[in-house]
Automatic annotation (TrEMBL):
PROSITE patterns: SUMT_1, SUMT_2. This is uroporphyrinogen-III C-methyltransferase. It comes from Desulfomicrobium baculatum (strain DSM 4028 / VKM B-1378 / X) (Desulfovibrio baculatus). One of its GO terms (biological process) is methylation. Pfam families: HEM4, TP_methylase.
Length: 502
């Protein structure tokens, strides 16, 4: 029987969704999501899922609540399992109860999957514990949306002003002058610590500390907008001491990741763990070959090779796919020597039962050739599973020493059809600080989508270009750019480390 799942997406950091919420996103046929639910969750959905955006941005709803209710009911009635993804927690100012009531009235099943609410998470990321033995033993969660022109307030302002609770006003920026005035009018001292947390837990997270009497003026001066949370209470004093998130080395820095989407996740997660706002702009897509007959033929001849040289994780993965399809495993390499061009490629081989005989000290083809010559590759028979189009340095240099080289395409890279306008827009808004390139192909494809001339005004004016090594740097120079950041070791971890150092 079809069912609706009212899922709390958490406060914005995609890592804060529950395990159950993530699992249901992967299973449901229909996803209905809000403005405050991180879009990265959509990558979890099953490929055939129907994904519907319903807005719910403050004052600008794509669909009114009653129509959202009708939509959920209609989709469940049609026999679909529906994931209703809501920012924060469904029952904390999320109108989840109203949606549940509509489902019950229609005779339909539902479940609630709680989420981390923004008051708890945003304050924690800002260094503000909502309770503390020294300062506060209770918390009040309060809507900041109340209409100041109403004759009667839904709030007991005297109780709020005189309680020892930490007060958390959701979406209260618009009404800050009214809120602060009502608190002071009802007995709260004007110098009570107060804080604003905007886009809490996300890469756009910001926080400000003031007092109840000054917070409205400060917000106007700083241009604080929604979505923001107002926290009032003595616990706000701890913000400067416990504020861990805003001290992350890349906090608030926008980083463009140009790697293929299949490869970008590790780099993206690392950068986000350091506080960066990552913008995925995959300039290449890794795709299988149309015909794998030559690869299977090469697998049948593996015993005739002295060396196999793997130049990328993708080369390992696609070669192994064919190896397994013909019923073979790592034992097929018995008697051969194996080289991996870098630690990530070596790790991919280790996962498949192969410990490489050689990993070069510098992760470029030239260094591979030098190391192989020292290991007697001259005159030997060599197999290089790689991309369909790649640099020819390695096979050409090996051929010079009479090695018999068979280059074996096992996958290809194609230009990703992305719109470069998004990058230009982010640059114009001042949101991008680093542009990362992990290979020559990412450079070439990036500039096929984003004209070099449109990038020039920003380079050196807040934007730095980072590349993984000298080969990629030479390709950059073809477009008139010199990297600002390049690590000594040509690996993704080293690139991240160099980026942090600036």
């Amino acid at each position: 029987m079809a069912k609706a799942y009212l899922i709390g997406a958490g406060p914005g950091d995609p890592g804060l969704i529950t395990v159950k919420g993530q699992r249901l996103l992967q299973e449901c046929e229909v996803i209905i999501y809000d403005y405050l639910a991180n879009k990265s969750f959509l990558s979890l959905c099953r490929p055939d899922a129907e994904i519907i955006y319903v807005g719910k941005k403050g004052g600008d709803h794509t669909l009114p609540q009653d129509q959202i209710n009708d939509l959920i009911v209609a989709k469940v009635k049609s026999g679909k399992n529906v994931a209703r993804l809501k920012g924060g927690d469904p029952y904390i100012f999320g109108r989840g109860a109203e949606e549940a009531e509509e489902l019950l009235e229609a005779g339909l099943d539902f479940e609630v999957v709680p989420g981390v609410t923004s008051a708890v998470a945003g304050a924690a990321y800002a260094g503000i514990p909502l309770t503390h033995r020294k300062y506060a033993s209770s918390v009040s969660l309060i809507t900041g949306h109340e209409d100041p022109t109403k004759p009667d307030s839904a709030h007991n302002w005297a109780a709020l002003a005189n309680a020892a609770s930490t007060l958390c006003f959701y979406m209260g920026v618009k009404n800050l002058p009214y809120i602060s005035a009502k608190l002071i009018e009802n007995g709260m001292r004007a110098d009570m610590p107060a804080a604003l947390v905007r886009w809490g837990t996300t890469a756009k997270h910001q926080s400000w500390v003031s007092t109840v009497g000054e917070i409205a003026a400060m917000a106007e001066r700083e241009g604080v907008k929604s979505p923001s949370m107002l926290v009032v209470g003595e616990v706000v004093q701890l913000r400067d001491t416990l504020n861990w998130f805003e001290k992350l080395p890349l906090h608030g820095k926008g980083v463009v990741v140009t790697r293929a989407r299949e490869q970008a996740s590790g780099l993206k997660e690392t950068l986000e763990g350091l506080g960066a706002a990552c913008y995925e702009f995959p300039t290449i897509t890794i795709v299988p070959l149309e015909d794998y007959a030559p690869v299977r033929e090469a697998i049948d001849r593996l015993a005739g090779y002295d060396w196999a040289i793997f130049t990328s994780v993708n080369g390992v993965r696609h070669f192994w796919n064919q190896l397994e399809l013909v019923g073979k495993d790592a034992r097929a390499f018995g008697g051969m020597q194996i080289a991996a061009i870098g630690p990530a490629t070596a790790e991919a081989l280790l996962e498949r039962g192969i410990r490489p005989d050689f990993i070069p000290p510098k992760y470029v083809a030239e260094s591979v050739v030098e190391g192989l010559l020292e290991r007697g590759v001259a005159g030997k028979k060599v197999l290089i599973p790689r991309a369909k189009v790649a640099r020819e340095v390695l096979p050409e240099e090996l051929a010079k020493v009479a090695a018999q080289v068979d280059v074996l395409p096992v996958y290809e890279t194609v230009l990703t059809q992305e719109d470069g306008a998004e990058i230009i827009e982010l640059l114009e808004k001042g949101r991008l600080h680093y542009l990362t390139f992990s290979s020559s192909s990412t450079v070439e494809n990036f500039f096929a989508l984003v004209p070099a001339d449109s990038l020039r005004p920003f380079v050196g004016n807040g934007l730095k270009i980072c590349c993984i090594g000298p080969v990629t740097a030479r390709t950059l120079s073809d477009y008139g750019f010199t990297p600002d950041i390049m690590p000594e070791d040509y690996t993704i971890p080293a690139l991240v480390e160099a980026l942090v150092k600036g």
